[in-house]
Design a protein that fits this description.
By secondary structure, the chain is mainly alpha-helical. The protein has 15 helices and 4 strands. It has 2 domains: 5-200 and 375-382, Cytochrome Bc1 Complex, Chain D, domain 2 (Orthogonal Bundle), CATH 1.10.760; 204-372, Cytochrome c-like domain (Cytochrome Bc1 Complex, Chain D, domain 2), CATH 1.10.760.10. The strands form 2 sheets. It has a two-stranded antiparallel ribbon with strand order 1-2. Strands 3-4 form a two-stranded antiparallel sheet. The longest helix is centred in the middle third of the chain and has 13 residues, at 184-196. The structure holds heme C (HEC) (2 copies).
Length: 394
């Protein structure tokens, strides 16, 4: 493997492989076993039977995730919209695709994405990372173009670009010793394996939970009681629940296929209960009117760096998010989306407003800020493997 030497060393140390991995790369077994390096209390993610984890696959997936040659224009990579310093979101309201087209939805964080039983903001049919990737890679199912590999010739050309690079021939060989190795099935399996490693559980809140009482200050602790324990009448924890502060998670100890979509009253276009056209949430899949405006509950981990917020990036700051919950929805006074979201007939039960004081709102923001995992945001294992090479980047 030709990853920069320092990187390989840190993998080896973190995986506790010790002396075995100090052997020269040529002698190392191709399928080096995978060992999860999980934060305390984190259950092991579920991995599809036909795509077991391996060190070599994760290394290949990391290269591909950062490689712009994987897009038709050779100008964007997955990391363009999923940037590590922003917990793998992109800081924009909605991202700009390959041809300058605006994506209707905000680029979500990939924090702990291995635990998500469904992917995308409101997509009941997409369960696996391997399947999700057909969206960004091939532009499947929508007029939106992300990486732009919309037809066979473009896919062939992208693969040829990769294989002109010696590093990929070696990396595919190690990750997929069987033939044929250079396929998009393997591209997708490798990237999914890398995505499953994006586990984050090193925030101040995690240190507090592990017994370090000083890890959270007074305000952060008060905010925690509001978000986690119903103080002040807030119901946050009903939806942002568990170790991931998210909707239902799926893992080896909870292989259930649970999924919840909620409408938090962001819109009520023309008092009809509608959300903006093209962004109606679950309704777009089910055509059931009561599913209008329903989206997946995102994780609150690293939320301080993933703004702007919500499925369409229409809420700028955490203070603004809290105002939505305090009011029981959002009122839009004028423009094409005018309407009183508080009165959206499809709004989920229990979101009728929470009278938090100004101080309590500040406490909630303080707690949300304590959910940032600084190590995750700069962990060398998740970073661009070839920052000096122009083909790789965000
Ligand atoms: C142009 C920006 C853009 C690019 C490039 C892009 N994505 Fe995304 N990604 C998004 C947006 C926007 C969504 C939300 C889509 C939705 O909800 O319909 C998303 C959603 C996801 C999700 C679902 C996360 C979750 O928790 O629901 C994953 C996983 C993902 N992308 C991985 C990738 C991978 C892998 C690549 C490269 C092959 C990639 N993305 C390229 C913008 C992008
Ligand atoms: C009924 C379930 C539910 C409750 C209760 C709830 N949320 Fe949410 N939350 C959601 C959903 C669903 C979204 C995404 C909505 C969308 O995009 O339209 C969301 C989005 C968010 C976001 C934006 C995250 C991002 O990445 O864009 C934050 C922050 C947030 N909620 C915090 C809170 C806080 C704080 C509370 C308690 C005051 C709370 N939520 C209560 C379901 C809920």
């Amino acid at each position: 493997m030709t990853l920069p030497g320092g990187k390989r060393l840190s993998w080896a140390l973190l995986l506790g492989l010790g002396a075995a991995s100090c052997r020269p790369s040529a002698e190392r077994p191709t399928e080096e076993p995978w060992a999860w390096d999980l934060p305390p209390g984190f259950p092991a993610p579920l991995v599809p039977l036909d795509n077991p984890m391996s060190v070599a696959k994760v290394a290949l997936g990391r290269m591909l995730f950062y490689d712009k040659r994987l897009s038709a224009s050779e100008s964007i990579s997955c990391a363009t919209c999923h940037q590590q310093a922003l917990a793998f979101s992109d800081g924009r309201t909605t991202p700009v695709g390959l041809q300058g087209d605006i994506h209707p939805r905000n680029a979500p964080t990939l924090t702990n994405v291995a635990y998500a039983p469904r992917l995308n903001w409101a997509d009941p049919g997409t369960k696996a990372l391997e399947a999700q990737m057909e969206g960004p890679l091939f532009g499947r199912g929508a007029p939106i173009v992300e990486m732009g590999l919309v037809d066979e010739p473009r896919r062939e050309a992208a693969l040829a670009r990769l294989l002109a690079d010696e590093r990929y021939r070696e990396a595919f060989e190690r990750a997929f010793p069987e033939a044929p190795k250079y396929t998009f099935e393997h591209v997708s399996k490798a990237i999914a394996s890398f995505e499953r490693t994006l586990v984050s559980g090193g925030s101040a809140w995690d240190r507090y939970r592990a017994g370090d009482a000083a890890a959270l200050g007074e305000a952060e602790r008060r905010g925690m009681y509001i978000v986690r324990d119903h103080v002040g009448g807030a119901l946050c924890h009903h939806c942002h629940d568990g170790f991931n502060l998210s909707g239902p998670v799926k893992h080896v100890d909870a292989p259930f296929d649970e999924v919840v979509f909620a409408n938090i009253g962001l819109y009520n276009v023309g008092s009809t209960g509608a959300y903006p056209e093209g962004n109606q949430g679950l309704y777009e899949h089910t055509k059931n009117p009561s599913d209008r405006g329903k989206f997946r509950t995102p994780t609150l981990r690293n939320v301080a760096v993933t703004g702007p917020y919500m499925h369409d990036g229409s809420v700028a700051t955490l203070e603004d998010v809290i105002a939505v919950y305090v009011e029981g929805g959002r009122v839009i006074e004028a423009g094409p989306y005018a309407g009183d979201g508080r009165k959206n007939p499809h709004k989920s039960a229990g979101l009728s407003g929470t009278p938090l004081s100004a101080g309590q709102r500040r406490d909630v923001v303080a707690f949300l800020n304590a959910l940032t995992d600084e190590v995750f945001l700069s962990d060398a294992r998740f970073s661009n493997p070839y920052p000096e090479d122009e083909h790789f980047g965000e």
